[in-house]
Amino acid sequence: MRRLRSLVLAGLVSMELVSFLSAGEAERTTAPLNFLFILVDDLGWSDLGCYGSDLHRTPHIDGLAGQGVRFTEAYAAAPVCTPTRAALMTGKYPARLHMTIWYEAARRPPTRRKLIPPVTVADLPHEEVTVAEVLHEAGYYTAHVGKWHLGDAAHYPETQGFDVNIGGTFWGAPQTFFYPYRGTRYFGGEYRYVPHLEFGQPGEYLTDRLTSEAIRVMRHARQQPFFLYLAYHTVHTPIEAKEEVTDHYARRIRPGMRHRNATYAAMVHSLDENVGRLLEELDRLDIARRTVVFLTSDNGGYINQFQGRTVTDNHPLRSGKGSLYEGGIRVPLIVRWPGVTPAGALCPRPVVTTDFYPTILEMAGLEGDPDHNCLTDGLSLVPLLKDPKASLPRRTLFWHYPHYYATTTPVSALRQDNWKLLEFHEDMHVELYDLAADPGERNDLAHRAPERVRALRHQLHRWRQGIGAQMPQPNSGK
Q1: 38 DSSP β-pair partners
Q2: Which runs of E-coded beta strand occur in 303-371?
């Protein structure tokens, strides 16, 4: 693996002074921080109890939020999986990386629509510097567990800074959530499997098993700082859960509820149970006080159907996965940094996936590669984690999805302050929303504010041009 050209603060890792509170007394430690980053697949903004779900029960995750900061306006860098994961690893916008759609579709755009989407980058280039590489170079034990979806075998986690890869492949979803995690039932009959999960038992559930593997990593690495990237496959399709938990939620559904899929609720329930296992293990290993925990999603909730049933509902937000409306990109985000984040705090500042790269580097006291850093798009969230009422020196966030999905046609968008502009490429019409007054994006104000539309649209075009965003092209056959 290539050597980073990073400038690392003296020693393998800087020894960061962090205060922790225990039994009402301040206890100080100079041990370097660990990082447990939990990425949930397709988890919607309102799918957790602490974000307002009317069916799902998530006491462990709610408890985590009660110990840290819960962001109410956090965004995924893209409305689908692979681009957001690339942004997390590099701190760069997906459009800058030319990774704007999931791996399997990157090289095969549809040719029977009004526009032909661009052929995009499928494999996260080795030239990019990942957060795992920076941490590994600084002496961290780095482990990936779960979904990778950032390239073929030549671009697997082992080639991107990770010491360990358990379960990561180029596939975006498993054929089943039950052992032996292989088969041909879905995804066009393609045979898929989740590797490195041998010696299981019938009935074993994938979310449970990935958590067990993550716990093994923590036990192995407890004597050195670690970065554990736990990318659950849940709650992505196929929608499968434990029968007894599904039955429990089926009995809880009442008329008027927004969330009505008992199997999906059971998947969220199992996620929550396993977050509880992870937090309990951090306590058992006596490393919770020096471990930062992140929990977020790669895009908005999947609102389409699976086996004839609607999967989830992102109310009060509009639309879902694939769309650049709020339901497709606004996600849960909880961060617990012991001794730093105020317990139970809410942060209303808009933040985005690209911010995790500089955040983790600042927490670890690392500078990273200066050439790479010049082209990153995120800002460190450390000021907000210390004071959720603080602000960041940024007014505008951008998205670019030049592809089709069940919820959208090719589209770009920006958010500046509370204004949200979307530009749809098939007919180049724009929509404008005031998110402060209308978070559900029901009232299009574009016709009432032509000057604002013109200014925001100019910024959007200038941003796309500046980062070399790939654009869809007219289909001459249509």
Answers
A1: 230, 295
A2: 305-306, 309-310, 330-336, 345-347, 351-352
Q: What 8-state DSSP symbol labels residue 444?
A: -
Predicted local distance difference test score (pLDDT) of residue 31: 84
Strand partners, 141: 226
How many domains does one find in the chain?
A: 1
Residue 334's CATH number? 3.40.720.10
pLDDT tens by residue, 264-312: 999 999 999 999 999 999 999 999 999 999 999 999 999 999 999 999 9
Query: Distance between CA atoms of 244 and 372, rounded to whole angstroms?
Result: 49
User: Which is nearest to 397 in space by CA: 380, 412, 381?
Assistant: 412
Angstrom distance (rounded) from CA 68 to CA 343: 5
Residue 400 counted as domain residue: no
Q: Which string of DSSP letters, residue by residue, matches 97-109?
A: HT--S-GGGTT--
Does the predicted model carry a pTM greater than 0.85?
A: yes
Nearest 5°: the CA angle 267, 272, 275 is 130
Q: Residue 134 and residue 162: Cα distance in Å, rounded?
A: 10
Measure the CA–CA gap between 246 and 240, rounded to whole angstroms: 9
Structural tokens at position 44: 């919607």
Reported in sequence order, the residue ranges of 8-50 that DSSP labels E, i.e. its strands, are: 18-22, 25-29, 34-40
Determine, yes or no, domain membership for 1: no
**For 111, phi and psi rounded to 5 degrees?**
-120, 10
Tokens found for residue 360: 């983790």
The token pair that represents 168 in the structure block? 């990561």
Half-sphere exposure of 432 (CA within 13 A, CB side): 17
Question: Contact, 326 vs 435, CB < 8 A?
Answer: yes
Cα dihedral sign, 120-122-125-130: positive
Residue 234 belongs to some domain of the structure: yes
Confirm whether 236 is domain-assigned.
yes
Containing structural domain, residue 142: 32-391
Check residue 4 and give its pLDDT: 41
Beta strands in 167-287 (DSSP E): 182-183, 192-193, 226-231
Amino acid letter, 78: A
If you search the block for the tokens 């393998």, which residue do you land on?
12
Handedness of CA 167, 293, 400, 407 (dihedral sign): positive
